């Protein structure tokens, strides 16, 4: 089975208010990319990956007239993708939903939000004292993670959690002092979200339920200067909860060498690009016996992607993130 996670930048902009694809020469949210070019590029990438199930991060919007599931299923139908079914969890108001596209011949998926005494449902509130000041912080997810019960046609059952943690970027800062304040506040909230996720994972592992957590965690060890204030990254919190991802493990090494990257952002003022490891597929320890194999579909670092100019260009046009896949015997 192949599972994937893919953050598709500004995917919602490619659909009208009735969830019909907009395939024309107008600009998409991507710099210097038309909607027609981005639609075509996304279709090429999804076709090449050919996943049995793919988490779409920043999926099309659900709102007064729009529906994420309908939009994704129409996209799949338009391009003949075998991942013809879609499912989502709790909708949010950010126009960036979390949803799973999947092949109904391979698996069934059910939204199955759960709660425990120390880890409420992801649409609720979470209380935690992060900085040991005897004052609880009240945390909510702007994008509640999606918690699914998955069953494969072979009878294997596991929990799948799709997540998009809060960005640490100090958006809206007007001065350096404000940038520092916002950055610290954002990291505090992000770490609280990771603790919340970690407790949900531990609960499932206590129940002897295999877990796969995937998505855009907007974090990794050593990614910003404020990490030392709290001692660890969101990724480390989730690994310590009992999950594993080889790319995250490599980034944690004392001398990691070339760290894997799943995203590429332009820095126009500097004349260069910034690369970062933000997207992960983490599995519980029991699943490591199922012959897992991870791959980042990076257009320049993956030999097969580099050797296929059409796919390479599609990866660069479709999004500022690159897909991550996991092949595993389930």
Description:
With 330 residues, the protein is α+β, with helices and mostly antiparallel strands. The protein has one domain (2-114, 143-169, 200-327): Deoxyribonuclease I, Chain A (4-Layer Sandwich), CATH 3.60.10. It is built from seven helices and 16 strands. Helix 1 (35-49) crosses helix 7 (309-318) and helix 3 (176-206) packs parallel to helix 4 (234-240). The longest helix has 31 residues, at 176-206. The relative contact order is 0.15.
Short description:
With 330 residues, this protein is an alpha+beta fold. The protein has seven helices and 16 strands.
CATH topology: Deoxyribonuclease I, Chain A
Widest sheet: strand ordering: 3-4-2-1-16-15
Q: Enumerate how many helices there are, as a single number.
A: 7
Distance, first to last CA: 6 Å
Overall average pLDDT: 91
Just name the CATH architecture: 4-Layer Sandwich
CATH class: Alpha Beta
Largest sheet at a glance? 6 strands, mixed
Shape: globular
Return the domain count: 1
The number of strands is 16
Spell out the CATH superfamily. Answer: Endonuclease/exonuclease/phosphatase
Ranges with pLDDT <50 over ≥5 residues?
none
Specify Rg, calculated over alpha carbons: 19 Å
Structural class: alpha+beta
Share in β-strands: 15-25%
Helix-strand sequence: EHEHEEEEEEEHEHEHEEEEHHE
Relative helix content: 25-40%
């Amino acid at each position: 089975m192949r599972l994937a996670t893919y953050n598709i930048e500004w995917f919602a902009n490619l659909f009208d208010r009735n969830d019909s694809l907009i395939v024309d020469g107008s600009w998409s949210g991507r710099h210097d990319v038309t909607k027609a070019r981005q639609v075509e590029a996304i279709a090429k990438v999804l076709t090449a990956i050919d996943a049995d199930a793919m988490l779409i991060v920043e999926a099309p919007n659900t709102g007064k007239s729009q529906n994420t599931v309908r939009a994704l299923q129409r996209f799949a139908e338009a391009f003949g993708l075998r991942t013809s079914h879609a499912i989502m969890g709790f909708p949010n108001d950010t126009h960036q939903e979390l949803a799973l596209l999947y092949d109904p011949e391979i698996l069934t998926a059910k939204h199955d939000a759960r709660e425990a005494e120390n880890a409420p449902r992801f649409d609720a509130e979470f209380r935690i004292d992060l900085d040991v000041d005897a004052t609880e912080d009240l945390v909510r997810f702007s994008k509640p993670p999606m918690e699914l019960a998955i069953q494969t046609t072979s009878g294997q059952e596991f929990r799948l959690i799709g997540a998009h943690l809060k960005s640490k970027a100090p958006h809206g800062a007007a001065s350096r002092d404000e940038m520092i304040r916002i950055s610290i506040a954002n990291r505090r909230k992000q770490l609280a979200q990771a603790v919340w996720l970690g407790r949900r994972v531990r609960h499932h592992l206590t129940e002897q339920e295999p877990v796969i957590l995937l998505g855009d965690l907007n974090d990794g060890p050593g990614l910003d200067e404020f990490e030392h204030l709290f001692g660890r990254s969101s990724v480390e919190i989730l690994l310590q909860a009992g999950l594993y991802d080889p790319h995250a493990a490599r980034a944690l090494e004392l001398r990691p060498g070339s760290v894997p990257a799943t995203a590429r952002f332009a820095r126009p003022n500097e004349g260069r690009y910034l690369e970062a490891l933000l997207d992960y597929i983490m599995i519980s320890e029991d699943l490591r016996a199922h012959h897992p194999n991870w791959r980042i579909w990076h257009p320049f670092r993956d030999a097969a992607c580099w050797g296929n100019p059409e796919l390479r260009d599609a990866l660069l046009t479709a999004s500022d993130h690159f897909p991550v896949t996991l092949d595993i015997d389930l």
